[in-house]
Design goal:
Chains A, B: One of its GO terms (cellular component) is chromatin. The structure is a homodimer of 205-residue chains. Chain A has 205 residues and is mainly beta. Chain A is built from 3 helices and 15 strands. In chain A, the strands form 4 sheets. In chain A, strands 2, 5, 8, 9, 13, 14 and 15 form a 7-stranded mixed beta sheet that branches. Chain A binds a DNA duplex (24 and 24 nucleotides) through strand 3 and helix 3.
Chain lengths: 205, 205
Amino acid sequence: ASPSLAPSSDVKIELENAELWRRFHEHTTEMIVTKTGRRMFPTLRYRLSGLDPNATYAVLLEMESVSDCRYKFQNGRWVVAGRADPPPLDANHRQGRTYTHPDSPAPGRIWMRQPLSFHRIKLTNNLLDQNAHIHLSSMHRYVPRVIVVKLHEYFTSMPQVVASASFPETDFIAVTAYQNEKVIQLKIDHNPFAKGFRDNGGAER
Amino acid sequence: ASPSLAPSSDVKIELENAELWRRFHEHTTEMIVTKTGRRMFPTLRYRLSGLDPNATYAVLLEMESVSDCRYKFQNGRWVVAGRADPPPLDANHRQGRTYTHPDSPAPGRIWMRQPLSFHRIKLTNNLLDQNAHIHLSSMHRYVPRVIVVKLHEYFTSMPQVVASASFPETDFIAVTAYQNEKVIQLKIDHNPFAKGFRDNGGAER
DNA sequence: GATTTTTGCACCTAGGTGGAAATT
DNA sequence: TCAATTTCCACCTAGGTGCAAAAA
């Protein structure tokens, strides 16, 4: 139970709130993208272990394209609708799908102390957006990959990827408006910011 | 007007919102300290120039004790009330008066791009507070000092202080409740969060 | 037409104010 | 009694929701 110095191969990444993600995944998760950037719900939360408590790490999140297809929602189901659009490039000629966790860089001890949350991450469909948001194409599928990078005395030698993981239940389709009512209901039921849309259901008061 | 590579001695630190600070200073600035931590108003805002755009820096803020005295507010004035209490030590046996700007470490280019703000800093009188707040003693005087540290390849050699500055107009007395009505009025008039206490003054509704 | 995107909104969460009363 | 501190509060700022209508 006490933390120990482990070789890189023992670095472990776990999805903290996997159960909630599975409830969405069951109905095909949708995430809103907007011009100004929209947070994800559920939030991506991971637990790290096996890091060197005193070494310095950065943690990245990358949105990986899951298929070569474009999708549409038809007759209550998501179906393929042709080949994927080519990934658009931003002003810096990059795909802009990588996000650095704001606590980076930090010692392993800090990363392992408590689950790390990507709640501040924002998804956008606006290529001109410069606010470090993640650029995605609507109606395309993605899966988040978390990447742990060890920094060797910062810049003296190349950073080294010591672990990376993507969880199938966190796969989602980017949309500009929700398509599936079941997904909407799960968002309303579980996201505190959507409380205003909940039925009060019971005989309270 | 174009940024240039300057030797450390040309690093410049300016107080961004000096005029507002002077209006408070005129009446002796007071800052509230609480158990849970209270923000400062006015906010400390500085402008940096003359850094190496590509070198890595951290920016710190330290609260320096200004006098050996304890103060009290009597007959509408701040007067000396004996010798200062010894600075209490926190659980880590440190005075806990240094705050690292959350953007640290970052390249000089980033620090110079826009004024840097310490609006998230919180003052506390609670020694058990572990939330990286600044510990101060009520009824004592302090002046904030901003310190720019150059990080040489992170940990390979000692960090080097390349500049530091404290501005007399940012001097203040820590209090648990405001003493001077003029200071209260300036806070209410200028802090957006205190808008609820403003007289609507005009003939509006 | 039909589908996809944008905009403005009421309704929330989250948390920063000084006042006033209670406490130390 | 007095001075200093703590607690709770109404009233704000700031910004995250899905909805509905409008626009593309």
